[in-house]
Design goal:
mainly alpha
Amino acid sequence: MRNPIPYFLICVLVILIGIEIFSNSPDTLWLQGLLERANAGDSSAQFSLSKRYASGDGVPQNDQQALYWLQKAADQGHADAQSALGAWHTAEGSSLPIQVVATHSPNRWSWMVQSILKHVSDLFNSFVFTLPSSDPDKFQRLLRAAEKGNPQAAFLTALAYHRALGVDKNDQLALSWMQKAARAGWSAADFELGNFYQEGVDSPRNDQLAFSHYQKAAGRGHLPAQKQVGQWYAIGRGTEKNQAESLRWLLMAAHQEDVEAQYEVGKAYQQGVGTPINHQEAVRWLQNAAQQQHAQAQFHLGKAHATGKGTNQDWQQAHFWWLKAAEQNHAEAQFALGELYRDNKPFNDRPENAGIWLDKAARQNHPAAQYALSQWLTSDTATKKNLTEALRWLQQAARQQHLPAMKELALRYSQGKDLPRNDPEAMRWWLSAAEQGDAEAHYQLGLAYAEGKGVAQDAHQAHQWWLQAAHLGSAAAEYQIALHYTQDREVTANREEALHWYRKAAEHGIAMAQLELAKSLDPSGNSNPLPATALHWYQLAAAGGAAEAQYILATRYSTGLGLPKNSTEAFQWFLKAAEQGHMQAQTMVGIRYGTGDGVIKNQKKKEEWLLKAANQDEPQACYLLGMTMLSGEMFKKDFQKAIALLEKSAAKGWVEAEYELALIHYSGLHLPVNQEMARTQMQRAAEKGFAKAQFRLAEWYMKGEGVRQDSRQALQWYRKAATGGYAPAQHKLGYLYEKGLGVTMDLGKAAVWYLQAANQGVVLAQIYLGMMYFNGQGVPQDYTLAYMWAEIGAMQGGNLTHMARQTRDAMVPLMSRSQIEQARQMARAQQDQIAMVAKYDQSAYGERIR
């Protein structure tokens, strides 16, 4: 017994269709049915519709629409339409032919019946293959209809043979019946023939033939065929690639309300494919598709609202459409929502939503979402931080070749950050990132080869990776190449190449390259004036954070070499460098807080900065702290720590520390007397040109204190100290020449050395020089100059003031009043000059450029 269910369903559907039919106005129903058939390519319906428009029967009279449908019917071989069109073309006037205009009012109820029959026919076509398999006649009934010339039956027969529905599979017969249906003008058959030739059904695959059948079906208004033609034009399959034609066919499908075509048209306008970019049109078509619940269209419409392209920027609208797409499980929209909730006000007031949507997208294997989720799970906005989950998502994103994830994973392995350090694993991820053309990955691979991390050390390989990175735009790689050309023995040294790469890196903003370029333009390091180009690069490097450049600018502002002297500006640059850990700058900041040079005095900050520098073993800071600990100036006296700091400073070659240690070992203060150690330390400092050490060593040799007495050695060290500008040595040398002690007496040389010492404020040298001018010894006799130097000595104050006054007053009886007044004026002027020099020497103390 046959299963009655399919028949029952058919009856139910027919009844429902009848109810639908009768619930509509008959006047609109017949026109709806006619339009459907005409749009589907039914030439009879097209001819009938032409007549309706010509006569205004049931529709507004419209000659243009009448001619449009008449031409459509004639193009399909409709004989009456061709005759009517011929009559119209041969008519004298432009009026429509009588064949078109002459018509009679249709029986509206006949259209209703036709509509019911059409629905019944569609139902039959839909259910013919769902009839019980025990029905022996179901396929035969279809075949008989096909043999009688019914194109739809021929089409369905072809499908039955192809899909083995109620009959054995036979692609040869399937192809034959499909061709018959297509020749009969059945557009769906042409579309299926296109599929047959595309797939090679009972014939070799033939994209050209497939395309021609798709095009025939598309030309008859077959919607899927229009989309297929548009897509094949886009990729050049079966025909030459033509984006404009692609868009034309997709537009036809889009106008038929095909949602996928509307989306494709929107994207074409958005990207300028086959047409100039038109964001307004893009938004229009995306909106049409989005309103039909097309998730991709909803996502891209959201992006348009987010960026303001083709519409006003509106984050609320962006959120609206992204949410709709996300609710359809669209991963990209879920990711966009996650970022929106994470970053944008007012949406980020509920940060947990960011995690929810990022998690949804991540679970759909969206790599960017997985990476973003890994970041969010360790951020302060996370509902609950979870490092384990964060690392798991990071690794999943990296396994999907997500570039930022691969790079972060490589860094974590190389630095041992939250993962065990694993240089080979870091190398593997850097290589994967490099395969995507990432400049930083190439740079990091160069570092790995240079340092032998995760791979055998190889300077040549490092250089090659850096060259590739540089060509990809890595400024850091350009700097490394320059360093290699400057320093590495395994890469041929080439100063010109080095400067070439320094300049490239400098122009790309690498501060250290800017510093090296400045140094190359300022080879002496203390050019005066400073070349403008060198200053330019020093300033850029300093502004870019290069501590050494900041320190160099500070020293130049401090000394006035190449730049106007400016203590405030000098301090600011010293401070910037110090804050970056530059130890010499830290020392200079400490010194200036102590002296108030360019900044308000602050002993506490002086102590803090000197300690920071000393903790880095900066020799001058160690020396200064050691001395203050000996004196108890800033700290409680601590001889043991003081000696340790001085020894640390001396070990770094700081001559003042060597000098002080020599004195300590010599005197036995704080340490047992050790004259041999004292002589060694003093000699070391003296040989480095430290004038105080040279003078003290000379004194020891002259007196035989701690060393064998040696006047020749003493004279040698006195002369070195005096030539170096050390005033006590100059005075002593003058005295030795005046008295002939250890040297042949020479009053002229004595006067020369006294003069140098006197100009540096040595009172005894000023008194002796005055006496030599008074007596004409070694210099021409000159009471005015004699009085001037004695007066200067008296002006100094101190223990020798009385002696200086006695010497000056002894000259008065031999001088006129005018000579005395002139001498006093000269003394005041000379004293001002001496004070200025002394002040400069004091401010420059400790600010030597190493």
